[in-house]
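Pasting two entries for a bug report.
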Amino acid sequence: MGNNNMTTSKKRCVLALDQGTTSSRAILFDNTGQLLATQQESFTQHVRTMETEADGENVDQAIVEHDPEDLWKTQLGCASRCLSEAGVRADEVAAIGITNQRETTVLWDRATGKPVAPAIVWQSRVSAPICERLKEDGLEDEVRQRTGLLIDPYFSATKIMHLFETHSGLRERCEAGEVLFGTVDSFLIWRLTGGRVHATDVTNASRTLLFDIISGDWSDELLKIFNVPRAMLPKVRPSSGIFGEIDEGWLGAPIPIAGCAGDQQSSAFAHGCDNAGDAKTTYGTGAFLLESTGTTPVLNAEGLLATPACTRESDSGPQSYCLEGSVFVAGALVGWLRDGLGIIERSSDIEPLARSVPDSGGVVIVPALAGLGTPHWDPFARGLIVGLTRSTERSHIARAALNAIALSVAEVLGCLEASSGHRLPRLRVDGGACVNDLLMQTQADVLGVPIDRPAVLETTALGAGLLAGLATGFYESTASISNARGIEKTFHPQTDEKERHQQLDHWRDAVSRCRGWARSN
């Protein structure tokens, strides 16, 4: 499949499709991993609350949805404009790599390709009551041992259960193979190939609660627990390998789709987190910290998830794994200050505003706008701001927001270090928010370790492009992009241990106040 016949004089680049939570992007990379062109387009977030019952109480849960057609149209549009911007013809593209928001759930009609319901986004808490029922049935230990995950609304299976419970006859249609399920990558692959390929990769499959990360396949036992028909599931393939060709009509040539990975594993692959102990954090809508554990999955780390790393079709060795910590709200907190509170006009305004004061003035924000992820896994937590006084200004809120992102990540890193028993020597970073120097310096200060920011910040997309390029021979090896993996700036800690621990103590106290808030109010 992957061979050097693809590498001819006319192949100039690889195209990465990066389908994220708030926007779609397309990026062209050359044979050294440098950007040739990039396009980005935002789409509508459909957010509302719904009253559900948990433990006999009525609880308001955040519902977050996307129109799958918006994901498709913006992604295809970005790809077309990206080629035009670079002056690249489709037949000059060696391969397409796809990376995506992971647990977001899409169901579509096999015959028409049309969605049968809105996409339920990974942030959505709509299936929290279902998760509570499954936990009460004592199923969490079995699920965790097979999947490396916890039973939480974050993941796909309980979203599917919610759709079955709210759409009459849907499960029967899925059982008959009339309706298909996929995470966003599968939906894009289906559309791009004209319905010829229903597939995903191991990293995306592993985020559904339906995939056994030890056996490397969909699990009959898990399908029974979540009452999900096998007929609706995509085929699971390696992250780097030929999935199929796109229809010529989309971009002008039948380009092979040769890479696919969930956004966080794609980022880790691009960073070269290959050895046990290598770690990275991506700052996007949320913040996600992955640390490689080599070929050993760690299934019982407190508050952390075990997840497979990217795989290559050419690999013959055992599967590699990572430990992951998930912060549900990071960059989204800045967006909330902009759109919800009107404290800033543009996201970029937060850094100069926060720099205008020496500290947060005692203000602490817990950004539990979509519940809490690692290590608490509390869908009933709600965000809060504490420490307000008459002297509190917008600038203190802005500073506290950046602190909140950094402290959320620090809490996750503490769990990783407790699990591994060793101190992380440094942290690699990427994502849109890491352009904020104050945030990165704050992160170094609260972690007490250096932060390495790469020369190419589009690391998630770079990983998808690298996976696709390796499968088609466009890249001979990961060494081909060594310059793109270079470090642009390192942020060294500037605070002492006493101040760092004081900040963390104040943070933990604030977090304890927001736990289970929706249950008690």
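Entry 2 (this is the one that rendered wrong in the viewer):
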Amino acid sequence: GLIAQRLRFSPIVGYLLAGVVIGPHTPGFVGDIDLASQLAEVGVVLLMFGVGLHFHLNDLMDVKRVAIPGAIIQSTAATLMGLGIGVAFGWPATHGLVLGMALSVASTVVLLRGLESHNLASSPSGHVAIGWLIVEDILTVVVLVVIPALAATGGAAMSAGALAQAMALALARLAVLVVLVFLVGSRAIPWLLVKVARLQSRELFTLTILAITVAIASGAAVFFGASVALGAFLAGMVVGQTKVSQQAAADALPLRDAFAVLFFVSVGMLFEPAFAVREPTLLLASLAVVLVGKPLAAVLVVAVLGYSTRTALVVAVGLAQVGEFSFILGALARHHDLLSETGYNLLVACALVSISLNPFLFRGLDAFESALRRRPWLWNALNAVATRRAAAVNAEAGKAIAAGEGPLAIIVGFGPVGQAVDRGLRHAGIETVVVDLNMDTIGEVARKERLAIYGDAAHDVILEAAGIKRATQLIVALPHSINRIPLMTAARQLNSRCKIFIRARYIRERDELVQGGAYAACFEEAEAAVALTQGVLADLGIDPATIAKEIDRVRAETTGAPVATMVPGGKV
């Protein structure tokens, strides 16, 4: 893991290779496969518990228009491509379906690391990618029900009627399980956890969390014929709704990380390196699904739904890999004889290659976008729906802005910060224009008969449409720094009198902002220091005048000149 991280690969690659090294298919020391499998089962339970614990529908609802249909269509396409590969290589149809299902699922861990390393996690494109993965997680839960149902039909000898009957029975059992877990669990589990938490024993609290998780996971398997992974996911969702969910995450997730490593190692132990030499065509075909088929499907779906090419590329690159859930599905299918050893080797090989390549694909995002821009016919085709949507949304606002004469303020980014600034300005009687790259956000603002422009504010055309030439303030409320300097440069060229107020994350960004022409900045790092200092001093009973002086000192030391920091009564 350390070596992989040092070489700028995902540590998951290191864990898988560690398993290969101590597996029975390579020379030297051979680990205990039975013990590794048992530990891996604990890893699966804790992995799925963590997914359920952090499962938030709000993250999905914000981007539901693109994430839900997009994930369903892309997963269906990948499943069909996997089925095609299976049929082409003489596999039973059920084995091909399982392969396609497993290849369609991307790793949430790998996606989040890729987004965070390129400051995309808080961007509109990042939100779409995360919402997309949430839908895939839901689909994974459904597949965990489908696989035992497929096995119940007799594998390759299944009929449509038998499959439908087995699926109906499996879904009925799932419905009963969900009702029991949420009706009984939502009452009993919070009560129990609060009682244990009041004992102020961390070890008892951690053990209680683990006992609940294992009990629900085992009960799902023994009494309902479901997988332990599905039971653990439901347990995580129930615990995630309690008042002690944060403490549960803090105590249980370190254990999850440790056992997840052992899970990846156990997967690597089952991998036969000679497989890549023995079945190169099969491996290349499957990699084509992961690295070409899935991304292309995602790009086309996002483009058809009217979102920017940048969003399409971020989603496509994020999905160009397979990870932990593919192994969980593969292991379950292998247990039910729905995936051969060759199929399992294929999944591991695809994961090793795709996860290794994913960081480099993220680094090539700008190059991919530039390559598309150099082909106007392709760029225009991909942006055709988005352009029409933007034109329809922007037309009415553009006319109103062009007809106006008074000063206005332009707010770029309409998240919680942008909305707060917007309310303050409107309460003060200042006309505002919202600019955002989230089409759904812009549509919602426009429906309230407010001025809103869809597009990237770094482009002159968008700034002009937003009324930059008569704007007195430009407020950049975006949480990330992508395109920030081009945005400020374009604004200064179009209206040198417009004052640029900007949100920045780190104090070290000050020099960059000075060169870019910012009038004033709010550094999140500095304001956190100010807020904490103020809160602690107030709690100690220090008088307001002393607190005010101390806050001035902290703000001056952390921000300094020459970029101003917004403070009451002036700027520092």
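Dev reply: Rendering is fixed now. As a check, the viewer should reflect this: The first strand starts at residue 408 and ends at 412.
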